[in-house]
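Per-residue structure
===
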Amino acid sequence: MKSVISKLWTLFNARQKLKMVLLVFLIVGGTVLEILGIGAVVPLIVLLSQPDAIQDNQILQQFQQWFQPDSTQSLLLLTLAGVIFVFMIKNIFLFGVVYYQSRFLYNQITEIASRLYKTYLQAPYSFHQKQNSAQLLRDIQMTEPLVQGVMYPIVVCFSEGLVGSCIFILLAWI
């Protein structure tokens, strides 16, 4: 697996490597928002199940000090609004991450195919006499399945693995 990733890394130029690092940071940011979303649900569940548990829960006490609601019901509504806000921000951010990820991978497809095509065009005439043109065309057309079948699963496994690991750590911590 490590050799596949190192071979794929050589396909990137410096600008693409920078974009890949940005993608990793966006995925980490999405993971933080996922954990924040899960963490925001816990006080809401506590408040719904035990309205008088404000004295026992530090998060709810802090929340009550900040907003100073009139009653437990208004604290519940504020908590619910906060959870909805966190989930909206999280989903908008994750939509942007998925959009950036899709554009990045699509640009990789076009970049690799373009570089391969330019290499074939700049090859000497003797190269083309020895090679089957159908084989060269197949090589250019196989860049999309390469990216979709190798790079996309690696990015998805990384992001989902990171989210799963952080959720596990959060649940073990709680």
Summary: Residues 120 and 136 are 8 Å apart (CA to CA).
